[in-house]
Each structure stands twice: as C-alpha cells, then as structure tokens.
Amino acid sequence: xxxxxxxxxxxxxxxxxxxxxSRTKIIGALAYIVxxxxxxxxxxxxxxxAALFAVIAVSKVPLKFIFKGLTAVFLIIAxxxxxxxxxxxxxxxxxxxxxxxxxxxxQRAFFMxxxxxxLIIGSSMLTLTTxxxxxxxxxEKLLKPFSKIGVPSHEIALMMTIALRFIPTLMEETDxxxxxxxxxxxxxxxxxxxxxxxxxxxxxxxxxxSSFRIAQELALAMEARCYHGGEGRTRMNEIHFHRGDAWAxxxxxxxxxxxxxxxxxxxxx
Amino acid sequence: xxxxxKNLRYVYNQGMPGETVALDDVSFGICDGQICGVIGHTGxxxxxxxxxxxxxxxxxxxEVWVDxxxxxxxxxxxxxxxxxxxxxxxxxxxxxxEETVAKDVAFGxxxxxxxxxxxxxxxxxxxxxVGLDYEKVKDASPFELSGxxxxxxxxxxxxxxxxxxxxLDEPTAGLDPxxxxxxxxxxxxxxxxxxxxxxxxxxxxxxxxxxxxxxxxINKGKLxxxxxxxxxxxxxxxxxxxxxxxxxxxxxxxRLNEEINLGSxxxxxxxxxxxxxxWLETSH
Lengths: 269, 284
Fold this sequence. Notes:
The complex is a heterodimer of chains A (269) and B (284). In chain A, strands 1-2 form a two-stranded antiparallel sheet. Helix content of chain A is 70%, strand content 3%. Chain A has a domain at 2-130 and 239-268. Chain A has helices at residues 16-19, 22-38, 42-59, 63-71, 74-87, 103-129, 132-143, 153-183, 193-198, 201-224, 243-268, and strands at residues 92-96, 99-102. The relative contact order of chain A is 0.15. Chain A has 11 helices and 2 strands; from the N terminus they run H-H-H-H-H-E-E-H-H-H-H-H-H. Chain B folds into 2 domains: 3-245, P-loop containing nucleotide triphosphate hydrolases (Rossmann fold, 3-Layer(aba) Sandwich); 247-284, no CATH class. Chain B contains 12 helices and 10 strands. Chain B has helices spanning 46-53, 78-84, 101-111, 116-129, 134-137, 147-159, 177-194, 205-211, 229-233, 236-241, 248-260, 269-283; strands at residues 3-12, 20-30, 35-39, 61-66, 69-70, 85-88, 165-169, 197-201, 214-219, 222-227. Chain B has a 6-stranded mixed β-sheet with strand order 6-7-8-3-9-10, sandwiched between helices. In chain B, strand 4 (61-66) and strand 5 form a beta hairpin. In chain B, helix 3 crosses helix 4, helix 3 (101-111) runs parallel beside helix 6 and helix 4 crosses helix 6. Chain B is globular and about 65 Å long. The chains are: A mainly alpha (269), B alpha/beta (284). At the A-B interface, helix 8 and helix 10 of A face helix 2, strand 6 and helix 3 of B.
C-alpha cells in the first residue's frame, strides 16, 4: 500500500534528462510549475502536457511508474475537482436542491485537475531523474547568492536532503508498523469513517516516536562525524553545466514563449 | 495443529527495477508442539517467509496450510488466521502506542472482541507469562520501561491473542546478555504453558541448537537445509558456504574430537559437559 507512493523517489538511469545539471532541472521544474499557472486555455494545457511527455519519453522513466505515484494524490485532485464544480458561479447547466453545476465551474474544475496532475508529474520528474545529493547540491548553489541577505542556503539544502532521504525510510517504517498492528488484529479496511480514523492511532503514535528516534540518531551520527554547518565545506563531486544544459535552457525559453503565446491562441479559435 | 507450506514463491517489485525473488519454491512442514528455528543470513528471505504464515503477504505461487486450513486461497477470514498465528516482528517495542502497558497488551484481544473480566484476565496472564510483574507495569507507560522489558511487553501484546502458533523474528536482537537469557526463558515458558508451535528466527546458533526440535536454513530465497539441529549442524561445510556457522560448543567439541578423540556430537553446553565427563571416566 504505502510502498506504491513514488513521490520523491529516484529512478536510476543514464538518459539525457538524468545527465543534466541539477540546477537546470530545478529551474526547469520551477519554471514549468509557474508556467502552468500562466496557461489559461485548452491549447496551453495540450502544449504543456506534450512538453512534459516529451521529457518523460527522453528520460525513459516508465509511465507506469509515474502514474503509480499519482494514485497517492488522487484524493486531493478529486476533492479540488468537486469543490470547483459546485462552487463556481456562472451559466447554470444543471440544478438540484443546493447543488448547482455551471459551465464555468466545470471548466475551472477540469483545468484545475489537469494543472494539478501536470504539476505533480512535472515536479516528480525532477526527483525521479535527479539523485537527492545532486538535487540539494544544485539547490544550495542556486541559493548561494541569497546567503548575503541572510538566507541560510546550506541549512535549507540540508533540510531538504534529509527530508527527501527519509521519505523511503519512513515509508518502510510505516509499512512495518502497519503490518505489526495488522498482526495484532487491527482492521483498516472495514468500519465507518470514525472507526477507520481511530484505527490510524496505533500507526501514527509509533511512527511519531520512530521519527523522533531516527532524527536523534541522525543528529548524533552527524555530530560524531564533526558536522559543523556549511562554512568551508568542500564537495567530492562538484557539479558543472555542460552543453546539454545550454540546449535545455534554449528549449525552456522556447517553451515559455509558446506558453505565453498560447494565452492568445484561445482567442483565435 | 500443524503448519504445511507448499511451493511458496514471492517476488518483490515484480516488473519494476529492483525486482527480487524473495522466496523460491519453499516447502516444509512443522508438527504440533515443535519449536522450529529459522536461520539464514540477512536478506535470505526469512522475514518474507514468516509474513506468509499469517497472511500478511500473499504468495505469488504455492499454499500455506495452518491447522488443516488453507490460508492462501482467500476463503478464510484473515482476522481468524491472525488470531491463530501470532507474529512478533523484529524490534516489536516500536509498535507500542498506548498510555499504559495493560492497555497496549489489551489492544490485540480487544480487536478479537474479548471484553470485560475476560479481557483483564487475558492481559494479566499474558504479562505474567512474559515475566513482567503485572501489578508494577500495568499502569506504567510502555515508553518508561527498559529495552528488554519493552520488548517483553510488546510480545505480551501478541501472546494475549492466545495464538496456536507463535512466530518471533529475531526476538533477541540488540539485547544485553541478561535480557537475552530472559527472552529465551520466556520462550520456553510460553511453549510449556500454551503448548503452541513456536517458530523463531535467530542468528545465534547456540540458541537454535539448545531450543529447537527442528531447524530450517534459508539461503537466497530457497530452503537449503531442513532437519533436527543435529542433522543440520553436521553439514558444517554447507553452512559455511552460506555464510552461517555451527554453534561455538560444536567447534570446541570438534577440536576435542580431533585432539583427544572425544567422539562427541554435542551442540549444547550441557551435552558437551556430559560427553566430556563420560570420556574422563572411561579413559582415565
């Protein structure tokens, strides 16, 4: 069950996407997320989706793997969809009791759902093709200029590494605890909502305790290896921009231009 | 009560990167009242095997029969299987969650629908059976106990469900010698009182030799050796090739067999002492 969540996982590979500098990919992913909010019509989403699938195709990460990660956030998407369908005013298509479906509501809900799906897939492509270490190295380098105005770039990067690093660990821990409580006869699948929520307590409490324990052990292990913050710290593998990154940059600018153009495309049809 | 495992097969991450065959065509049987030891080095598939025995994992191939009932064909209620087969995971103390030890131990039996005086009685018996003082610990927070006591409290939580088969995955891992001895004594006591089948995983060959009627050796997902401790530990070379060992006592006895022609096949301290005594009496 929890094993199926692929969010934040790394999918080992040697594709062109994998080889890109992590800074390029971070900027690309961020730009993509922002651009998704620039898009305001069907054509824009079509282009954005096509671009994303092109990246997926190049990265050679199996689609099955990506969609499996999406099932975990399906509930959130469904929830936003329903909220949007019923709560947006406009031309009424259907009305019953307190429920009203409007044309604008349907459109907004559909766009929001597509946007969320693309957003999640887009950002998971970043983590799927970038090793956590590279990811944080890139992030730290990107944030470095801001450290002059007091942004703790190293600490932020470290916190992110640790958070990413511990996703699979905590998943495993959760899996273990669920199994242990199942072995003691807990039934997660039946009962009403309150009973089901209650059956989570025997999982959440041990999980909290485990995370505190893991955090403490990690802090000790880091101190034992003389960790003293980012000051004067060197790296075994320095990251460098290559020619591929330049091409990726060109494509990113092109994509931005197309996305902005797509806003006006809708008016043409 | 018996356990029958037939041609069990399980693959992790099937069709994904990192696909691993955890169990491959594993078959064996355990008879009523036996204590069965499972050895094999880390990642050999032991834990996967244990989880099949109470239905936490579904085999991709093969069957598991408990007490004449097939638990893998989907016709039986899993809660029923879990009542029959108690499984204590590695580091079970990490599953404790209630405010008091008594409440935590009561969690399992409560899930089975036991209530009132019967519940209190069940909890008291389970806590006493694992060697804890009921009056002292029942109102204590499980997180205040020492490591060894926490573990016993967690084991009590499984015993309270009165299983006919008790499975323990490395029950002595990471404990000090005193707690280690106490856990072994506890397993013997549970076996005597409940008369259940006990299956336990251990890396301590001495413990396996002194406790078990039957030993299973798992290697790379396959059942490599099966038999009494004497049968298994007489195949020293095979064990060594799998990265396993014979009990330390056996090593000493082997040396004595070579040096002074002791002629013993003892696996436990008691047997070795007996054989050496006999040798001293007859030869000198």
